Amino acid sequence: MNAPIFWATAAQRGMLAAMRNHAWLVVPLLFFVGGCEKEKAASESPPPVVSIASEAVETPKREAVEDVDIKGLLKKFGCHDKANKAICDVLDGFDKGKKWEPTSIQGNEGRYFGKAVTNTKGVRKERWVFLIIKKVPLNEIADGDLSVKVAFRELDKDKVAENNHAPKLLWLLQRDDAIPKRNQTANHVLGYAPSNWDSASPTQGTSIILHVDDGIYVRQGEDRSLQLIKTELATPGSASTDETYVRLYPLSW
Q1: Where are the beta strands (DSSP E) in 24-180?
Q2: Across the 253 residues of the chain, what is the mean pLDDT of every consecutive 10-residue run?
Q3: Does a structural domain hold residue 21?
């Protein structure tokens, strides 16, 4: 059986004719739209990656400070009249001392031990102290500092054996004698491991300054001893001072 034939109406025939007449526009239009999308995608490329480099923080150069007024201190304590022997011995050694070169120690580290005399608001006390110095690379110091780190410490009063052996150790060091291995003070100083360090730098004069608290000035004596002077205001705004005068002897260098 033959399939039935359906005849298109006049309106339907007109619509088909219009589609045939405009078919040539369809394909170019598709290519135009596709090209625009590709150009748009190309123009919307991701922004360039910006590399954020860490900026090095420049530490300002440390300017050399004025040296301590040693002549004024000698006069203050009447050292020319042989008064205040303990303090004046340090001041006299400081006055006659030369520039200490901490980088000239034989090894990478040096340790010194001695006695300090403190003068706080007129009250004087003595205490045992020690100094540790180590050489460090230039990239570990600030511009203007010496290539060393220092640790200045007081012997803990709770360490009974160490305090009991301290006078003997000082006596031996003053005479440049051998130190017995059983001396507990020497063992403590030689074995002490600082948890933090301070820096040191030259002054405008002969001394170098250890940047401990408000600063400790250092000069070297003829017998390789070190003379240390520390002066600071006892109370902000007051005229009274806290002063420390120290003579140290090399235990290892």
Answers
A1: 109-120, 123-135, 148-154
A2: 48 52 46 48 51 51 92 89 86 95 91 94 91 96 95 96 98 96 97 97 96 93 92 60 92 91
A3: no
